[in-house]
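Morning F.,

Quick status update on the modeling queue. The single chain you submitted on Monday has been processed. Sequence for confirmation:
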Amino acid sequence: MDDSYQLKFATAGADGLLLALAGSWETHHVLPDSDQLESWLDSHPGIKQIGFDSTAMTAWDSALLAFLVRVKIGRAHV
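Structure tokens below.
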């Protein structure tokens, strides 16, 4: 069974984003591309809150943090 990362995102209320993280977010897996999430954020202006659902996450290390930093850097122009 492949336990690599899974990422889903959806609105949470009027100004929120819910990131559902599942599987393993570890450096020995290829990190997801942040473009899809950044595109989603572009189409949902006004997001002020981000929530995380990690109940299905099996493991994580600096790979998760690197992904979130990459999204933050990509959003710096907004």
